[in-house]
Write a structure and sequence with these properties.
The protein is an alpha+beta fold. The chain is 30% helix and 32% strand. The structure holds zinc ion.
């Protein structure tokens, strides 16, 4: 396990175990759901995450195409839709801090934080599981209107 700090949050995580867990998962939550909101997320997945977040996912051993779940909050403005979701990883949240509260309340931009409050993850993650949650904005590209 390796410790990693994000603002006032502290996690311990196992990159190799996380990579192994993702190798047992076929696809992301959006593919498993398949509704119009999720199909739009799949089309826009490449635009959903900024580089620093992609770097974090890679450091944790997370496969960016296999989010635990993505969900559509609704329109963010005329051009963009607000989505949230999370990725599981093998590890524990040691210090929860206030980042989750602060980032959740923020009105704009891409945000992410560590969490230990989520639906039961796939068994391949083992018993020590935490998640990195995100909120993002993407265009609506799917032919069916939101
Ligand atoms: Zn869906």
């Amino acid at each position: 396990m390796t410790n990693f700090e994000l603002g006032d949050q502290l996690i311990s995580h196992d990159t190799d175990a996380t990579v192994a867990a993702y190798s047992e998962i076929a696809n992301g939550g959006a593919e498993r759901c398949g509704c119009a909101d999720c199909r739009n997320f799949i089309l826009q997945r490449v635009n959903a995450y900024p580089q620093d977040f992609l770097n974090l996912l890679s450091r944790l051993g997370i496969d960016v195409s296999k989010e635990g779940e993505a969900f559509h909050y609704g329109p963010a403005n005329d051009d963009e839709q607000l989505y949230g979701g999370w990725f599981y990883f093998v590890g524990t949240l040691i210090e929860a801090g206030n980042r989750a509260k602060i980032e959740r309340a923020a009105q704009s931009g891409f945000r992410y934080w560590f969490s230990n409050n989520f639906p039961r993850p796939p068994g391949c993650f083992g018993k020590d599981v935490a998640a990195v949650e995100f909120v993002t904005r993407i265009p609506w590209e799917h032919e069916q209107s939101p």
